[in-house]
Design brief:
Beta Polymerase, domain 2, 472 residues, seven-stranded mixed β-sheet, binds cytidine-5'-triphosphate, alpha+beta, Hydrophobic Seed Protein, 11 strands, 9% strand, RNA-binding, 4 domains
Length: 472
């Protein structure tokens, strides 16, 4: 990295301009990290400098905004350099216009690289070229997050969420004055584009232990009220069985339990949902009961019917996905988690643990079997610990862990070899259309129960079933 920065300084000197390493990269260096995304503020000719770096050092140039002179140069996927002009007349002005003091520092590369100190980050000499007009270095040492000024968070309310993310990431305390500014900024969060919110919120939620910060966003900043559709309604709705706390408190508790369950059983790496999967998963925990109170009813026979509220939560999940502009995959994942989160408990209470029931539950959960089992365990842990029903919790935990163990150790059970394809079924006389899918699903279940064991018995079963279909 240091060599790359030397090259930047050299090219800048040739162009007769000043260049500074700024923002998060400087913070990370002081924190002892090796940044890979390097932001560079250039006095004049940012685009020319980016072009020279790409041409002369075999980087790939992407002009991000030609008019505003912003460009990115990528080097063999190792480092990414973002060039932009100073915001303001000079570097101090640029830094003061940034979000937090720890992000408002710069390194003057021209001076640094013309000195003998430009060798390696281990050589601490580079610190003497720090430009730090707001006291970022001191704040970082003290573990404090502080806004650069009174307007910083009103100018760009996204910075409120960035602040929470940075505090969580670097384990910082937010100064009381900055908390007040964050609270004011939070009221304007609705002005911020959904994709920007999701980018920061997603990063924050991906961190492994943010329960405390999620509570902070609620208690101190009222942020969830602006971000989550249904947040107020959840607070106004009592859990309608066990009557311990309102739905929103329960969801916050579930969020905390989810982080514990994920850590305790090392589940982080098994989740579906792609790179942002963990963040969507946690969002689902926070929203999972939003559909209450159209909800669990005790039926006359004493059994509990759960379907209503999980289904009723789907439109809220969709509205949130739209607001945050989640990708199609993220949206689908969120909706699936919300829609089916009650099913494992429903199966536990009402259906039992036969092979067929386990297989049906697996099929029902649409590729998110493991994730929904974990969410359900967190959900039930939250409910049963709050209402001190610990023996029931033990039984449920055993049930879920047994399912998870089976899922991880018996892949052939969950994915039985396909004896007949859709085409085979049609050749045997199954009418084209939805019936083919139904036959395939039934056939898989027949394999699970052992009623069908090989190609011959599969064909026999299909032929016999076809006779049961009334001819039109
Ligand atoms: N809303 C924002 C976004 C960014 N910045 C400034 O731009 C720098 C670069 O932003 P970005 O690359 O998004 O974040 P980093 O702080 O570099 O953090 P990370 O590398 O962890 O994403 C920040 O350090 C900060 O100085 C800001 O003031 N306000």
């Amino acid at each position: 990295m240091w060599n790359l920065l030397k090259m930047v300084a050299q090219q800048a000197a040739d162009l007769g301009t000043d260049v500074y390493l700024v923002g998060g990269a400087v913070r990370d260096l002081l924190w002892g990290l090796r940044p890979r995304d390097l932001d560079l503020a250039v006095a004049n000719g940012a685009l020319d400098l980016a072009r020279r770096m790409a041409d002369r050092h075999r980087g790939t140039l992407v002009v991000l905004d030609g008019q505003r002179q912003m460009a990115r140069v990528v080097f063999k996927q190792d480092y990414q350099l973002d060039f932009s002009p100073f915001k303001g007349a000079h570097i101090e002005g640029d830094l003061r216009a940034r979000d937090f003091t720890i992000n408002a520092m710069a390194l003057h590369l021209n001076s640094l690289c013309s000195s003998k100190n430009c060798t390696s980050p281990a050589d601490q000499g580079w610190r003497s070229f720090l430009v730090d007009p707001t006291g970022g270095k001191r704040d970082l040492q003290l573990g404090l997050l502080q806004a650069t000024g009174n307007e910083a968070l009103l100018d760009d309310p996204l910075r409120v969420i960035r602040g929470v993310r940075l505090a969580a990431q670097f384990n910082l305390s937010i100064t009381p004055e900055t908390v007040v500014l964050m609270r004011q900024g939070a009221r304007r969060i609705e002005q911020v584009a959904g994709e920007r919110i999701w980018q920061e919120l997603g990063q924050a939620l991906t961190l492994p232990h943010v329960h405390h910060w999620v509570e902070f966003m609620d208690r101190e900043l009222n942020l969830w009220q602006y971000l989550l559709p249904g947040r107020l309604r959840m607070e106004a709705t009592e859990q309608n069985y066990y009557h311990v706390e309102n739905v929103w408190r329960h969801c916050l508790r579930t969020f905390g339990c989810l982080e514990i369950v994920l850590k305790k059983y090392q589940f982080y790496h098994h989740l579906a949902g792609g790179a942002t999967g963990p963040a969507v998963f946690k969002l689902a925990a926070l929203l999972h009961d939003v559909g209450k109170p159209d909800t669990a009813k005790i039926r006359p026979d004493g059994r509990i019917s759960f379907y209503g509220h999980a289904q009723a939560g789907v439109p809220y999940a969709e509205a949130l996905a739209d607001r945050l502009r989640l990708s199609g995959m993220e949206r689908q994942y969120l909706v699936t988690l919300i829609r089916h989160h009650m099913q494992p408990l429903h199966y536990f209470l009402n259906k039992g643990y036969s092979d067929l029931k386990v297989f049906r539950l697996f099929r029902l959960l649409e590729g998110s079997f493991l994730d929904i089992l974990i969410l359900s365990l967190a959900d039930v842990t939250a409910t049963y610990t709050a209402s001190e029903r610990l023996s029931e919790l033990t039984a449920y935990r055993e049930y879920i862990l047994k399912l998870i163990h089976r899922y991880e150790h018996e892949p052939e059970f969950f994915h039985p070899a396909k004896l007949l394809s859709g085409k085979d079924l049609i050749a045997l006389g199954v009418p084209e259309g939805p019936l083919v899918g139904k036959f395939l699903a039934r056939l898989a279940e027949m394999q699970i129960t052992g009623a069908v064991t090989d190609l011959h018995s599969a064909k026999q079963w299909v032929i016999a079933e076809l006779k049961n279909i009334t001819p039109q």
